[in-house]
């Protein structure tokens, strides 16, 4: 499978993402945001970082980069698309995923390890994850507080579109394990068609034995099963 990793000015997790994909035995190419071709990529990833310096609002300017027209078309035609952290922010700005990502309730940038729990196996990225396991994954964001209106939240729940919850190391989902104030501890979702995935934590930063944490690799392996 061929992965295309879009690079915006300010992206800083593109190399990490390419490295993980290649370590899994698949091809990964970087796609510069000013280009329009997706280079026949099967799967598009919008990586983490600070696209356009997070000016105006995280992801708001990147959403209008030239390449995004074809990224949106790719998703609308059923192609797989994933946004990680800043990439998730771009996806909600492009209305490919519902809801918004607001300033953390602490009003501070947060960079630390947290724990995630997969909410369902009915998704490409969670298909064989242990629903009882707490996965240790880093976060690094200032605008990661997921918010949506009551109708949207009801739809996410009823359609099984919530993919990850923030939890503690024992897998308990509670206020104490919520790092940013996201409603219902939501850390990742997908669209109704299940081909567009967004998550705030960075699995690509926990995918190397040298870092003493490969929980993120276990998550990203799901994409190529």
Automatic annotation (TrEMBL):
Keywords: ATP-binding, Cytoplasm, Glutamine amidotransferase, Hydrolase, Ligase, Nucleotide-binding, Purine biosynthesis. It catalyses: L-glutamine + H2O = L-glutamate + NH4(+); N(2)-formyl-N(1)-(5-phospho-beta-D-ribosyl)glycinamide + L-glutamine + ATP + H2O = 2-formamido-N(1)-(5-O-phospho-beta-D-ribosyl)acetamidine + L-glutamate + ADP + phosphate + H(+). The keyword Transferase does not apply. Pathway: Purine metabolism; IMP biosynthesis via de novo pathway; 5-amino-1-(5-phospho-D-ribosyl)imidazole from N(2)-formyl-N(1)-(5-phospho-D-ribosyl)glycinamide: step 1/2. Coiled coil: none annotated. CDD domains: GATase1_FGAR_AT. GO terms for cellular component: cytoplasm. Its main location: cytoplasm. GO terms for molecular function: ATP binding; glutaminase activity; phosphoribosylformylglycinamidine synthase activity. It is found in: Cytoplasm. The active site is at 85 (nucleophile), 202, 204. Its EC number is 6.3.5.3, 3.5.1.2. GO terms for biological process: 'de novo' IMP biosynthetic process. HAMAP family: PurQ. Part of the phosphoribosylformylglycinamidine synthase complex involved in the purines biosynthetic pathway. Catalyzes the ATP-dependent conversion of formylglycinamide ribonucleotide (FGAR) and glutamine to yield formylglycinamidine ribonucleotide (FGAM) and glutamate. The FGAM synthase complex is composed of three subunits. PurQ produces an ammonia molecule by converting glutamine to glutamate. PurL transfers the ammonia molecule to FGAR to form FGAM in an ATP-dependent manner. Part of the FGAM synthase complex composed of 1 PurL, 1 PurQ and 2 PurS subunits. This is Phosphoribosylformylglycinamidine synthase subunit PurQ. It comes from Aquirufa rosea.
């Amino acid at each position: 499978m061929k992965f295309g990793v879009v690079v915006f000015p300010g992206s800083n997790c593109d190399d990490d993402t390419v490295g993980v994909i290649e370590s899994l035995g698949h091809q990964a190419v970087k796609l510069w945001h000013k280009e329009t071709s997706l280079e026949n990529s099967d799967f598009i990833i919008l990586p983490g970082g600070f696209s356009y310096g997070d000016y105006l609002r995280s992801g708001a300017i990147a959403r209008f980069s030239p390449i995004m027209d074809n990224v949106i078309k790719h998703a609308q035609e059923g192609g797989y698309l994933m946004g990680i952290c800043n990439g998730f922010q771009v996806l909600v700005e492009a209305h490919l995923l519902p809801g918004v990502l607001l300033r953390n309730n602490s009003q501070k940038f947060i960079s630390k390890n947290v724990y995630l729990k997969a909410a369902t196996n009915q998704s490409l990225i969670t298909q064989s994850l242990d629903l009882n396991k707490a996965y240790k994954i880093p976060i690094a964001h200032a605008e990661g507080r997921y918010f949506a209106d009551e109708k949207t939240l009801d739809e996410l729940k009823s359609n099984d579109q919530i993919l990850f919850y923030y939890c503690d190391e024992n897998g308990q989902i509670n206020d104490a394990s919520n790092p940013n104030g996201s409603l219902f501890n939501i850390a990742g979702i997908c669209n109704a068609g299940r081909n567009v995935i967004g998550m705030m934590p960075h699995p690509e930063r926990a995918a190397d034995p040298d870092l003493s944490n490969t929980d993120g690799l276990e998550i990203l392996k799901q994409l190529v099963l």
